[in-house]
Amino acid sequence: MRAVVRVFLILTVFIGMTHGEPAWASGFYYSEGDKGAEVAVINSKLRQAGFRTVTEEPLFTAKTAAAVKAFQKKNKLTANGVVEQKTYQALLGKSMPEDKTAAPLAQAVINTAFEYIGVPYRYGGTTPKGFDCSGFVQYVYARNGIKLPRTADIQYKSGAAVARGKLRAGDMVFFSTTERGASHSGIYLGDNKFINASSSRGIVICSMSDPYWQKRYWGARRII
Hints:
The chain is an alpha+beta fold. It is built from eight helices and eight strands, in the order αααααββααβββββαβ.
C-alpha cells in the first residue's frame, strides 16, 4: 500500500509539472510548498542524516522545513527552514546550481535577504535587531552596494517599472496595505514568491497568490 501511495504522489507531482506548475523555486532556494526531483533528493539526504519523519516524496512539507531547521542548528547555520546555498552545500556536499537566467547581483541580494529570515518586525526598524518592510529592503540592497530611499512610497519611485508578468528575481514588489499607494515593499524571489518584513511574523517568505497580497498588489520596480 505504501508503494502505491508513493507512486500516486510522485505521478501527481509530475503530472502537475507538465501542466505548467513550477517544479521548484527560482534556483536560489527551496522552501515549504516547493516540489520536484531536487526536493526529493533533499528529503532523501535529510532521512540519511537521521530525520526519519521526512518522507522521500518530491514535496517540501512542513516536516521537511522542521528537519531543515534542526539540521541547520546542528551545523551552525541560520536556522530558517529554507534550503539556500549554504544549507544545500552542507546537506548535499556540493554547490547549488545557479539560476542562469538571473543576474549574479540578484542572486547576491536574495542570499543576503535569506540571512534574516525570522528576524522580528519592528516599526521603524532598519537593522537585524528588527526591521520594518522598507527598512529591510533598504538594508538588504545596501549590503550589496545599492542605495535606496527609506520608505516604501519613495522606494516605489526608484528604478524602472516592471509588469507583473515580467517579474524577475531581485525586483522590488509593492503593495497597498495601510493606505492607498505603495505602503509595503518586499523583494521578489521568483516562483511567485517574495520575502518581506511582516508585521505579525517578521522576515518571512510569502506567496503573491495569497489572497491578502494578491488583492493589495500595487506594482514592481527593477533596480538590478
